[in-house]
Amino acid sequence: MKKLLALPLTFALAASALAACGPQEDSSSTGGKKESAADKPEKLVMWEDQEKGAGTKDAIKKFEDKYGIKVDLKEIPMLDQQEKLRLDGPAKKGPDVITTPHDRIGPLAIEGLIAPIKVSDDVTKLYTESSINALTYDGKLYGLPKSTETPVFIYNKKLMPEAPESFDDVLAFSKGDKGGAQYGFLANWTDFYFANGVLSGYGSYVFKDDNGTLDAKDLGLSNEGAVEGLDYITSWYKDGLFPKGIIGEKAGPTIDGLFQEGKVASVMNGPWSFQGYKDAGIDIGVSPMPKLPNGEDVKTFIGVKGYNVSQFSPNQEWAAKLVEFITNEENAKTRFEKTAEIPPIVSLMEDPIIADNEAAKAVAVQSERGVPMPNIPEMAEVWAPAANALQLSATGKSEPKAALESAVKTIGQNIEANHGKK
Question: Is it the case that residue 26 has pLDDT exceeding 90?
């Protein structure tokens, strides 16, 4: 999802003209009818994630000064906003702008809770390709990216002075002295969220991507690459390099505990874990995931948080203008400084603020290598059967091929039952 082409976002209209009319003359304005002075609202309501408002306040003040529109910022837990919008929107007391993780875009769009937006190519190319793809559903763009996150390689510098370049190196380390640790590397590879990076690196896919549209009838989780990837994952369990306790729901907390106790030299985890590890007194290093034995990158799931326009907003064009403004390069940089949320802005990948920040740089680079988590409703049917296949293989209760074929069969049946046309 990068080429260093991004420039600070500019607007075509002079400030004096903007005071008298809507954004219809702006080259990056959103679609729909053209707005007149009467259409310019006195106020827009924006729902921001809990404890993240500090990252947006500066941008909002600039927007208010530029356009003369008051923005009422409210902090609401991000995962609660969909349900609240469902109730408040029809009652005409909802927001104009919300923030949500990209994997909810499909369900939100299908339910008619968010509206597509139209922006120019000059705007979309500010962001990484994968972050724009993540916010696209059925060929339509449903917001602009706020931040990105993905699993990376985290290591204890006391036990592992440098990040290895390949998993062959990780394997050799894990079979050697392990820097004095009990385990060289641990990953929650019976959780499909983490394991998919390995499977995808070998050539699997969840749903076939047809020019930006995901085909839920074309599952790639039991193809040759998927089987090869699960063979590789299973080898870590068979060789005793992973403890028996890191299978299933307890795996994540067990891995965290062992790393915080200094009993494991390196782990696969996301940026949400950084502070906890630091609080435990671990001097952590962070890098992109090492290359797989086949020479390919680990293609981790990337998650993108975006700002979206409510379908119930009477001011959709101005709401989209606000989204465009607060996610531009300048404002994204300020938000990163205040919240540490990593913006998928192409130019910022080389800006010292991220380039000189080891952890942020690792997440940014790994996000380039990853794939957006599918944002269609059918993805809900994937998690449990896929995890079951991983666990059956890891415990030796099923061969990888048979486990994956069974999972794909179950996923297909559940998609037909729960998402097929009635």
Answer: no
Q: Which helix (H) or strand (E) holds 20?
A: none
Torsion of CA 42, 24, 66, 323, to 10 degrees: 80
Rounded Cα–Cα distance for residues 230 and 223 (Å): 11
Q: What is the mean pLDDT of residues 63-81?
A: 97
Residue listed under structure tokens 């070998």:
202
Q: Quick one: DSSP state of residue 223?
A: S
Here the tokens at position 223 are 């193809």
The DSSP code for 16 is H
pLDDT at position 422: 53
- Where would I find the H helices in 28-73? 57-67
> Are 382 and 192 within 8 A, CB to CB?
yes
- Give the alpha-carbon dihedral of 101, 102, 106, 109, to 10 degrees: 70
State the DSSP code for 53: G
Mean pLDDT of 6-15: 30
Tell me the pLDDT of the chain averaged across its residues. Answer: 90
The H or E element spanning position 115 is strand 114-115
| The pLDDT of residue 31 is above 70 | no
Average pLDDT over residues 301-319: 97
Residues 6+ apart with CB under 8 A from 333: 343, 345, 348, 351, 353
Instruction: Over range 39-53, report the average pLDDT.
Output: 95
CA 293 to each of CA 52, 112, 229, 255, 269: distance values in angstroms, whole numbers, following the listed order: 40, 45, 10, 23, 20
**Rounded Cα gap, residues 137 and 116, in angstroms:** 9
DSSP string, 284-333: EEEEPPPBPTTSPPP--EEEEEEEEEETT-TTHHHHHHHHHHHTSHHHHH
Helix (H) or strand (E) holding 366: helix 358-369
Which residues are 207's β-sheet partners?
219
CA–CA distance, 331 with 337 (Å, rounded to integer): 10
